[in-house]
Design brief:
Blueprint lengths: L4 E5 L5 E5 L16 H8 L1 H7 L19 E5 L5 E4 L3 E2 L7 E2 L8 E6 L6 E6 L5 E6 L10 E4 L4 E5 L1
Antiparallel strand pairs: 1-2, 3-4, 3-11, 5-6, 6-10, 7-8, 8-9, 9-10
Helix pairs in contact: 1-2
């Protein structure tokens, strides 16, 4: 398999080239672990499908895609704070989009070669729940990153 690289630009303008082949594989254990039965009972069918089975919700169906209230977006699986409303923007893609997480420790980025694509999956660092993907497509300013997140993976705490 050919190595694929990706350029990340930090808020201060520094750039870094990442090799997708060297991003961490998702084999680590998480602070919050449950049995599949416990996850199903906690999350419900659709959130379980997305968070635990790495599914994707249909575009333009999330209540959070067009929510512009001030507050914090949390992982629906464990409640860890992930993104703030200050970093949310309208990417027009049909899913809530953010240009950065609260900090680098809240989300984990994993090379994803599923469906014949080279992407970067985003999971909650506390429970391993699938949140979506991050794209370096220049839409999210000032970082140029677009964290394209399934709304069903999120909760919202209004400020």
């Amino acid at each position: 398999m050919m190595a694929t690289s990706w350029v990340c630009v930090s808020p201060n303008g520094d750039s870094q080239r990442l090799n997708l082949d060297t991003l961490k594989k998702d084999s680590m254990t998480y602070k919050i672990e449950k049995t599949e039965e416990e996850w199903k009972a906690l999350l419900g069918e659709e959130a379980y499908r997305v968070l635990r089975l790495k599914g994707t919700e249909r575009p333009f169906t999330s209540e959070y895609e067009t929510l512009w209230d001030s507050g914090t977006y949390v992982c629906k699986g464990c409640g860890q704070e992930l993104f703030t409303s200050e970093t949310k923007f309208d990417a027009g893609c049909g899913w809530p989009s953010f240009y950065q997480s609260i900090d680098k420790t809240r989300v984990k980025e994993i090379a994803d070669y599923s469906h014949g694509m080279s992407r970067v999956e985003v999971v909650c660092s506390a429970c391993g729940g699938h949140l979506g993907h991050v794209f370096n497509d220049g839409y999210g300013q000032p970082t140029g990153l677009r964290y394209c997140i399934n709304g069903v993976s999120l909760g919202f705490r209004k400020k």
